[in-house]
Amino acid sequence: MTEKVLGGGGGLAAALLLLLSHLRLSFGTCPCEDPALCNPIQGSRDFEVLVFDVGGKNWKFYNWSHITTVAIFGNYDPELMCYAHSKGARVVLKGDVSVKKIVDRAFRASWINQQVDLAKKQYMDGINIDIEQEVEKLSPEYYALTDLVKETTEAFHREIPGSQVTFDIAWSPNCIDKRCYNYTGIAESCDFVFVMSYDEQSQVWSQCIARANAPYNQTIAAYDDYINMGINPKKIVMGVPWYGYDYACLGLIKSHICSIAEVPFRGAPCSDAAGRQIPYKVIMIKVNTSLTRILWNEEEEAPYLEYKDPNGAFHQVWFDNPRSISMKAAYVKERGLRGIGMWNGDCLDYSDGSVPRKQTQAMWEALIPK
Ligand SMILES: *[C@@H]1O[C@H](CO)[C@@H](O)[C@H](O)[C@H]1NC(C)=O
Ligand SMILES: *[C@@H]1O[C@H](CO)[C@@H](O)[C@H](O)[C@H]1NC(C)=O
Ligand SMILES: *[C@@H]1O[C@H](CO)[C@@H](O)[C@H](O)[C@H]1NC(C)=O
Ligand SMILES: *[C@@H]1O[C@H](CO)[C@@H](O)[C@H](O)[C@H]1NC(C)=O
User: Fold this and answer.
1) What confidence category does residue 339 fall into, taking pLDDT thresholds of 50, 70 and 90?
2) Where are the alpha helices (DSSP H) in 50-134?
3) Binning pLDDT at 50, 70 and 90, where does residue 126 land?
4) Pocket of ligand 4, candidates 47, 49, 65, 340: which has the most ligand atoms within 8 Å of its Cβ, to mutate?
5) What kind of fold does domain 3-243+324-366 have according to CATH?
6) Distance separating alpha carbons of residues 172 and 190, to the nearest angstrom
7) Per-domain residue ranges for the chain?
Protein backbone atom coordinates (compact mmCIF):
# COMPACT_ATOMS: atom_id res chain seq x y z
CA MET A 1 0.00 0.00 0.00
CA THR A 2 2.79 2.40 0.88
CA GLU A 3 4.47 1.74 -2.46
CA LYS A 4 1.34 2.63 -4.37
CA VAL A 5 0.88 5.90 -2.56
CA LEU A 6 4.47 6.93 -3.06
CA GLY A 7 4.60 5.85 -6.68
CA GLY A 8 8.05 5.34 -8.17
CA GLY A 9 10.20 8.07 -6.61
CA GLY A 10 11.52 8.47 -3.19
CA GLY A 11 14.20 5.81 -2.53
CA LEU A 12 15.47 6.39 0.97
CA ALA A 13 12.55 8.61 1.91
CA ALA A 14 10.12 5.91 0.85
CA ALA A 15 11.97 3.30 2.85
CA LEU A 16 11.91 5.57 5.88
CA LEU A 17 8.23 6.22 5.52
CA LEU A 18 7.59 2.53 5.17
CA LEU A 19 9.56 1.88 8.33
CA LEU A 20 7.67 4.61 10.17
CA SER A 21 4.32 3.27 9.13
CA HIS A 22 5.30 -0.16 10.37
CA LEU A 23 6.41 1.27 13.70
CA ARG A 24 3.11 3.08 14.06
CA LEU A 25 1.34 -0.11 13.21
CA SER A 26 3.22 -2.08 15.84
CA PHE A 27 2.37 0.49 18.54
CA GLY A 28 -1.26 0.38 17.58
CA THR A 29 -1.61 -3.35 17.15
CA CYS A 30 -3.30 -5.49 19.75
CA PRO A 31 -0.85 -8.20 20.91
CA CYS A 32 -3.62 -10.66 21.81
CA GLU A 33 -4.70 -13.47 19.51
CA ASP A 34 -8.28 -12.32 19.93
CA PRO A 35 -8.36 -8.53 19.38
CA ALA A 36 -11.41 -8.28 21.67
CA LEU A 37 -9.06 -9.04 24.56
CA CYS A 38 -7.52 -5.60 24.15
CA ASN A 39 -10.73 -3.93 25.25
CA PRO A 40 -10.77 -2.60 28.81
CA ILE A 41 -12.68 -4.71 31.33
CA GLN A 42 -16.12 -3.35 32.22
CA GLY A 43 -18.22 -3.62 35.35
CA SER A 44 -17.21 -4.94 38.73
CA ARG A 45 -17.52 -8.14 40.70
CA ASP A 46 -18.86 -8.48 44.23
CA PHE A 47 -15.54 -9.36 45.80
CA GLU A 48 -12.31 -7.72 44.70
CA VAL A 49 -9.08 -9.74 44.73
CA LEU A 50 -6.11 -7.53 43.87
CA VAL A 51 -2.78 -9.17 43.11
CA PHE A 52 0.56 -7.41 42.90
CA ASP A 53 2.71 -8.99 40.22
CA VAL A 54 6.42 -8.24 40.47
CA GLY A 55 7.55 -9.84 37.21
CA GLY A 56 8.41 -13.20 35.73
CA LYS A 57 5.99 -15.85 34.57
CA ASN A 58 4.53 -17.04 37.88
CA TRP A 59 1.27 -15.38 36.89
CA LYS A 60 0.55 -18.40 34.72
CA PHE A 61 0.02 -20.36 37.93
CA TYR A 62 -1.98 -17.81 39.94
CA ASN A 63 -5.43 -19.00 40.90
CA TRP A 64 -7.37 -16.89 38.43
CA SER A 65 -10.81 -18.00 39.59
CA HIS A 66 -11.06 -15.06 42.01
CA ILE A 67 -8.62 -12.43 40.66
CA THR A 68 -10.24 -9.16 39.64
CA THR A 69 -7.17 -6.89 39.29
CA VAL A 70 -3.48 -7.43 38.68
CA ALA A 71 -1.22 -4.47 39.45
CA ILE A 72 1.94 -4.69 37.36
CA PHE A 73 4.88 -3.76 39.58
CA GLY A 74 7.40 -5.58 37.39
CA ASN A 75 7.90 -5.21 33.64
CA TYR A 76 4.86 -4.93 31.41
CA ASP A 77 4.06 -8.31 29.85
CA PRO A 78 1.55 -8.20 26.98
CA GLU A 79 0.94 -11.93 27.37
CA LEU A 80 -0.18 -11.33 30.96
CA MET A 81 -2.50 -8.54 29.82
CA CYS A 82 -4.18 -10.79 27.24
CA TYR A 83 -4.48 -13.63 29.73
CA ALA A 84 -5.92 -11.47 32.53
CA HIS A 85 -8.47 -9.99 30.15
CA SER A 86 -9.49 -13.48 29.05
CA LYS A 87 -10.26 -14.15 32.74
CA GLY A 88 -12.18 -10.91 33.17
CA ALA A 89 -9.44 -9.38 35.34
CA ARG A 90 -8.13 -5.83 35.07
CA VAL A 91 -4.47 -5.06 34.56
CA VAL A 92 -3.27 -1.78 36.04
CA LEU A 93 -0.14 0.35 36.04
CA LYS A 94 1.95 1.22 39.04
CA GLY A 95 1.89 4.95 39.75
CA ASP A 96 4.58 6.71 41.74
CA VAL A 97 5.70 10.33 41.55
CA SER A 98 7.50 12.81 43.78
CA VAL A 99 5.02 14.56 46.10
CA LYS A 100 7.23 17.66 46.00
CA LYS A 101 6.81 17.91 42.23
CA ILE A 102 3.04 17.39 42.09
CA VAL A 103 2.45 20.60 44.02
CA ASP A 104 2.92 22.20 40.59
CA ARG A 105 -0.43 21.87 38.83
CA ALA A 106 1.08 21.75 35.34
CA PHE A 107 3.53 19.04 36.31
CA ARG A 108 0.68 17.05 37.84
CA ALA A 109 -1.38 17.33 34.66
CA SER A 110 1.48 16.20 32.46
CA TRP A 111 2.25 13.25 34.74
CA ILE A 112 -1.40 12.18 34.59
CA ASN A 113 -1.43 12.47 30.79
CA GLN A 114 1.65 10.29 30.55
CA GLN A 115 0.04 7.59 32.70
CA VAL A 116 -3.17 7.61 30.67
CA ASP A 117 -1.22 7.41 27.41
CA LEU A 118 0.91 4.54 28.69
CA ALA A 119 -2.16 2.65 29.92
CA LYS A 120 -3.87 3.10 26.56
CA LYS A 121 -0.82 2.04 24.61
CA GLN A 122 -0.57 -1.12 26.71
CA TYR A 123 -4.33 -1.83 26.74
CA MET A 124 -4.45 -1.52 30.50
CA ASP A 125 -7.41 -0.87 32.78
CA GLY A 126 -6.21 1.77 35.21
CA ILE A 127 -3.56 2.55 37.75
CA ASN A 128 -2.63 1.67 41.32
CA ILE A 129 -0.99 4.69 42.92
CA ASP A 130 1.65 3.68 45.44
CA ILE A 131 3.18 6.75 47.03
CA GLU A 132 4.70 6.01 50.38
CA GLN A 133 6.47 9.31 50.87
CA GLU A 134 6.40 11.49 53.96
CA VAL A 135 3.75 14.20 53.89
CA GLU A 136 2.95 16.68 56.64
CA LYS A 137 -0.66 17.29 57.52
CA LEU A 138 -2.12 20.40 55.81
CA SER A 139 1.14 21.02 53.87
CA PRO A 140 1.08 21.92 50.14
CA GLU A 141 1.94 18.27 49.40
CA TYR A 142 -1.02 17.13 51.51
CA TYR A 143 -3.48 19.03 49.32
CA ALA A 144 -1.63 18.26 46.09
CA LEU A 145 -1.76 14.52 46.79
CA THR A 146 -5.53 14.55 47.23
CA ASP A 147 -5.83 16.60 44.03
CA LEU A 148 -3.56 14.18 42.19
CA VAL A 149 -5.80 11.25 43.09
CA LYS A 150 -8.95 13.13 42.12
CA GLU A 151 -7.55 14.33 38.80
CA THR A 152 -6.03 10.94 37.95
CA THR A 153 -9.37 9.25 38.58
CA GLU A 154 -11.24 11.77 36.43
CA ALA A 155 -8.75 11.44 33.58
CA PHE A 156 -8.72 7.64 33.57
CA HIS A 157 -12.49 7.30 33.85
CA ARG A 158 -12.92 9.76 31.00
CA GLU A 159 -10.22 8.38 28.69
CA ILE A 160 -10.57 4.65 29.41
CA PRO A 161 -14.19 3.77 30.17
CA GLY A 162 -14.43 1.09 32.85
CA SER A 163 -10.94 1.79 34.17
CA GLN A 164 -9.98 1.62 37.82
CA VAL A 165 -7.90 4.01 39.91
CA THR A 166 -6.79 2.87 43.35
CA PHE A 167 -4.44 4.16 46.03
CA ASP A 168 -2.27 2.27 48.52
CA ILE A 169 -2.46 3.51 52.09
CA ALA A 170 -0.55 2.71 55.28
CA TRP A 171 -1.85 0.07 57.70
CA SER A 172 -3.12 2.81 60.03
CA PRO A 173 -4.32 6.40 59.45
CA ASN A 174 -2.31 7.73 62.39
CA CYS A 175 0.54 9.31 60.40
CA ILE A 176 2.35 5.98 60.14
CA ASP A 177 5.87 6.47 58.80
CA LYS A 178 5.11 10.23 58.70
CA ARG A 179 2.55 9.64 55.98
CA CYS A 180 -0.12 12.11 57.06
CA TYR A 181 -2.46 12.02 54.07
CA ASN A 182 -6.04 13.17 53.67
CA TYR A 183 -7.31 9.61 53.75
CA THR A 184 -11.00 10.40 53.53
CA GLY A 185 -10.42 12.78 50.63
CA ILE A 186 -8.26 10.22 48.82
CA ALA A 187 -10.75 7.37 49.34
CA GLU A 188 -13.57 9.58 48.11
CA SER A 189 -11.61 10.51 45.00
CA CYS A 190 -10.68 7.04 43.71
CA ASP A 191 -12.35 3.67 43.17
CA PHE A 192 -10.95 2.17 46.36
CA VAL A 193 -7.98 2.28 48.69
CA PHE A 194 -5.74 -0.71 49.28
CA VAL A 195 -4.65 -0.86 52.93
CA MET A 196 -1.12 -2.20 53.23
CA SER A 197 -1.65 -4.16 56.44
CA TYR A 198 1.96 -5.21 56.81
CA ASP A 199 5.30 -3.75 57.92
CA GLU A 200 3.35 -2.87 61.04
CA GLN A 201 6.54 -2.82 63.12
CA SER A 202 8.13 -0.11 61.01
CA GLN A 203 8.03 2.24 64.00
CA VAL A 204 8.36 0.74 67.46
CA TRP A 205 8.72 2.89 70.58
CA SER A 206 8.41 0.07 73.12
CA GLN A 207 10.71 -2.92 73.71
CA CYS A 208 12.94 -3.61 70.71
CA ILE A 209 12.03 -7.23 69.99
CA ALA A 210 10.90 -9.27 66.99
CA ARG A 211 7.14 -9.15 66.47
CA ALA A 212 4.50 -10.14 63.94
CA ASN A 213 4.48 -8.38 60.57
CA ALA A 214 0.72 -7.88 60.87
CA PRO A 215 -0.72 -8.78 64.31
CA TYR A 216 -4.43 -9.52 64.11
CA ASN A 217 -5.81 -7.05 66.66
CA GLN A 218 -3.59 -4.19 65.58
CA THR A 219 -4.52 -4.80 61.95
CA ILE A 220 -8.24 -4.95 62.57
CA ALA A 221 -8.32 -1.94 64.91
CA ALA A 222 -6.85 0.20 62.13
CA TYR A 223 -9.69 -0.73 59.73
CA ASP A 224 -12.13 0.37 62.39
CA ASP A 225 -10.18 3.66 62.54
CA TYR A 226 -10.47 4.16 58.77
CA ILE A 227 -14.16 3.35 58.80
CA ASN A 228 -14.82 5.59 61.79
CA MET A 229 -13.15 8.47 59.92
CA GLY A 230 -15.97 8.15 57.42
CA ILE A 231 -14.51 5.90 54.74
CA ASN A 232 -17.14 3.59 53.27
CA PRO A 233 -16.10 -0.06 53.87
CA LYS A 234 -16.95 -0.72 50.21
CA LYS A 235 -14.06 1.57 49.31
CA ILE A 236 -11.55 -0.47 51.29
CA VAL A 237 -9.57 -3.50 50.15
CA MET A 238 -7.49 -5.30 52.76
CA GLY A 239 -3.86 -6.04 51.93
CA VAL A 240 -2.22 -9.08 53.52
CA PRO A 241 1.45 -10.08 53.38
CA TRP A 242 2.67 -13.16 51.58
CA TYR A 243 6.08 -12.51 53.10
CA GLY A 244 7.52 -12.32 56.57
CA TYR A 245 10.49 -10.97 58.49
CA ASP A 246 13.60 -12.89 59.44
CA TYR A 247 15.25 -11.33 62.50
CA ALA A 248 18.71 -12.21 63.79
CA CYS A 249 18.32 -12.28 67.57
CA LEU A 250 20.83 -10.49 69.78
CA GLY A 251 19.42 -12.69 72.49
CA LEU A 252 16.71 -15.34 72.48
CA ILE A 253 15.13 -16.65 75.66
CA LYS A 254 12.99 -19.74 76.32
CA SER A 255 9.77 -17.73 76.30
CA HIS A 256 10.54 -16.89 72.68
CA ILE A 257 11.50 -13.25 73.18
CA CYS A 258 14.03 -12.32 70.48
CA SER A 259 15.74 -9.00 71.11
CA ILE A 260 16.89 -7.23 67.95
CA ALA A 261 19.24 -4.45 66.92
CA GLU A 262 17.92 -0.90 67.26
CA VAL A 263 17.45 0.38 63.73
CA PRO A 264 15.58 3.70 63.71
CA PHE A 265 12.99 4.63 61.08
CA ARG A 266 11.26 7.98 60.49
CA GLY A 267 11.64 9.11 64.08
CA ALA A 268 11.13 5.79 65.90
CA PRO A 269 14.12 4.19 67.66
CA CYS A 270 13.32 0.61 66.67
CA SER A 271 12.03 -0.85 63.45
CA ASP A 272 11.43 -3.99 61.39
CA ALA A 273 14.30 -2.68 59.25
CA ALA A 274 16.44 -4.76 61.67
CA GLY A 275 14.97 -7.82 59.94
CA ARG A 276 15.04 -9.06 56.39
CA GLN A 277 11.89 -9.57 54.34
CA ILE A 278 11.51 -13.11 53.06
CA PRO A 279 8.82 -14.64 50.84
CA TYR A 280 6.47 -17.33 52.13
CA LYS A 281 8.05 -19.96 49.89
CA VAL A 282 11.47 -19.45 51.49
CA ILE A 283 9.98 -19.61 54.99
CA MET A 284 8.26 -22.90 54.15
CA ILE A 285 11.60 -24.42 53.14
CA LYS A 286 13.00 -23.49 56.56
CA VAL A 287 10.23 -25.18 58.54
CA ASN A 288 11.61 -28.72 58.64
CA THR A 289 15.12 -27.68 59.61
CA SER A 290 13.95 -25.06 62.13
CA LEU A 291 14.37 -25.55 65.88
CA THR A 292 10.69 -25.12 66.57
CA ARG A 293 8.63 -25.85 63.44
CA ILE A 294 5.67 -23.47 63.21
CA LEU A 295 4.63 -21.90 66.51
CA TRP A 296 1.58 -19.69 67.14
CA ASN A 297 1.66 -16.50 69.18
CA GLU A 298 -1.68 -16.15 70.95
CA GLU A 299 -1.36 -12.44 71.58
CA GLU A 300 -0.50 -11.40 68.05
CA GLU A 301 -2.37 -14.33 66.51
CA ALA A 302 0.45 -14.98 64.11
CA PRO A 303 2.76 -17.87 63.26
CA TYR A 304 6.53 -17.78 63.77
CA LEU A 305 9.50 -20.10 63.93
CA GLU A 306 13.07 -20.13 65.16
CA TYR A 307 16.22 -21.46 63.58
CA LYS A 308 19.97 -21.37 64.02
CA ASP A 309 22.06 -20.10 61.12
CA PRO A 310 25.38 -21.72 60.02
CA ASN A 311 27.27 -19.22 62.20
CA GLY A 312 25.33 -20.34 65.26
CA ALA A 313 23.15 -17.22 65.56
CA PHE A 314 19.48 -17.63 66.49
CA HIS A 315 16.79 -16.23 64.21
CA GLN A 316 13.11 -15.65 64.69
CA VAL A 317 10.89 -15.51 61.62
CA TRP A 318 7.44 -13.93 61.72
CA PHE A 319 5.01 -14.39 58.88
CA ASP A 320 1.42 -14.99 57.82
CA ASN A 321 -0.01 -18.32 56.77
CA PRO A 322 -3.45 -19.70 55.86
CA ARG A 323 -4.46 -19.70 59.53
CA SER A 324 -3.70 -16.02 60.17
CA ILE A 325 -4.84 -14.87 56.72
CA SER A 326 -8.19 -16.61 56.91
CA MET A 327 -8.91 -14.84 60.22
CA LYS A 328 -8.33 -11.52 58.48
CA ALA A 329 -10.38 -12.59 55.46
CA ALA A 330 -13.24 -13.43 57.83
CA TYR A 331 -13.12 -9.83 59.08
CA VAL A 332 -13.26 -8.56 55.47
CA LYS A 333 -16.56 -10.36 55.03
CA GLU A 334 -17.96 -9.52 58.45
CA ARG A 335 -17.19 -5.80 58.08
CA GLY A 336 -18.33 -5.67 54.45
CA LEU A 337 -15.03 -4.51 52.92
CA ARG A 338 -14.66 -4.43 49.13
CA GLY A 339 -12.18 -7.30 49.01
CA ILE A 340 -8.68 -8.46 49.68
CA GLY A 341 -5.26 -8.51 48.05
CA MET A 342 -1.68 -9.42 48.80
CA TRP A 343 1.90 -8.24 48.53
CA ASN A 344 2.76 -10.09 46.44
CA GLY A 345 1.55 -12.83 44.11
CA ASP A 346 5.05 -14.07 43.40
CA CYS A 347 5.98 -14.99 47.00
CA LEU A 348 4.59 -18.53 46.66
CA ASP A 349 6.17 -21.66 45.25
CA TYR A 350 4.48 -22.45 41.95
CA SER A 351 6.68 -25.44 41.17
CA ASP A 352 5.30 -28.86 40.54
CA GLY A 353 5.94 -30.78 43.78
CA SER A 354 2.97 -31.99 45.79
CA VAL A 355 4.07 -30.19 49.01
CA PRO A 356 4.48 -26.73 47.45
CA ARG A 357 1.34 -27.22 45.39
CA LYS A 358 -0.70 -27.83 48.53
CA GLN A 359 0.90 -24.93 50.41
CA THR A 360 0.33 -22.55 47.52
CA GLN A 361 -3.26 -23.58 46.99
CA ALA A 362 -3.99 -23.13 50.71
CA MET A 363 -2.63 -19.56 50.60
CA TRP A 364 -4.90 -18.64 47.69
CA GLU A 365 -7.88 -20.28 49.35
CA ALA A 366 -7.29 -18.44 52.62
CA LEU A 367 -8.02 -15.16 50.83
CA ILE A 368 -11.62 -16.06 50.18
CA PRO A 369 -13.84 -15.72 53.26
CA LYS A 370 -15.91 -18.80 53.98
C1 LIG B 1 -9.84 16.10 52.49
O2 LIG B 1 -10.27 16.06 51.15
C3 LIG B 1 -11.64 16.31 50.99
C4 LIG B 1 -11.97 16.11 49.51
O5 LIG B 1 -11.15 16.89 48.71
C6 LIG B 1 -11.98 17.72 51.47
O7 LIG B 1 -13.36 17.96 51.34
C8 LIG B 1 -11.57 17.85 52.92
O9 LIG B 1 -11.76 19.17 53.34
C10 LIG B 1 -10.11 17.46 53.09
N11 LIG B 1 -9.80 17.43 54.52
C12 LIG B 1 -8.87 18.18 55.07
C13 LIG B 1 -8.68 18.01 56.53
O14 LIG B 1 -8.19 18.93 54.42
C1 LIG C 1 8.75 -31.58 55.97
O2 LIG C 1 8.27 -32.60 56.80
C3 LIG C 1 6.97 -33.04 56.48
C4 LIG C 1 6.44 -33.98 57.55
O5 LIG C 1 7.44 -34.47 58.38
C6 LIG C 1 7.00 -33.67 55.11
O7 LIG C 1 5.71 -34.13 54.75
C8 LIG C 1 7.48 -32.66 54.10
O9 LIG C 1 7.61 -33.24 52.84
C10 LIG C 1 8.79 -32.02 54.52
N11 LIG C 1 9.01 -30.85 53.66
C12 LIG C 1 10.15 -30.67 53.02
C13 LIG C 1 10.24 -29.40 52.21
O14 LIG C 1 11.09 -31.43 53.08
C1 LIG D 1 -8.04 -8.53 70.71
O2 LIG D 1 -9.12 -7.65 70.76
C3 LIG D 1 -10.28 -8.23 71.35
C4 LIG D 1 -11.41 -7.24 71.19
O5 LIG D 1 -11.02 -5.96 71.58
C6 LIG D 1 -10.00 -8.57 72.80
O7 LIG D 1 -11.14 -9.15 73.38
C8 LIG D 1 -8.85 -9.55 72.84
O9 LIG D 1 -8.49 -9.81 74.16
C10 LIG D 1 -7.66 -8.99 72.09
N11 LIG D 1 -6.69 -10.03 72.01
C12 LIG D 1 -5.45 -9.84 72.32
C13 LIG D 1 -4.60 -11.06 72.25
O14 LIG D 1 -5.00 -8.76 72.65
C1 LIG E 1 -8.60 -22.08 42.73
O2 LIG E 1 -9.56 -21.73 43.67
C3 LIG E 1 -10.76 -22.46 43.54
C4 LIG E 1 -11.77 -21.89 44.51
O5 LIG E 1 -11.22 -21.54 45.74
C6 LIG E 1 -10.49 -23.93 43.81
O7 LIG E 1 -11.67 -24.66 43.67
C8 LIG E 1 -9.46 -24.41 42.80
O9 LIG E 1 -9.11 -25.75 43.10
C10 LIG E 1 -8.22 -23.55 42.86
N11 LIG E 1 -7.35 -23.92 41.78
C12 LIG E 1 -6.08 -24.24 41.96
C13 LIG E 1 -5.30 -24.57 40.75
O14 LIG E 1 -5.56 -24.25 43.05
Assistant:
1) very high
2) 78-86, 105-121
3) very high
4) 65
5) TIM Barrel (3.20.20)
6) 18
7) 3-243+324-366
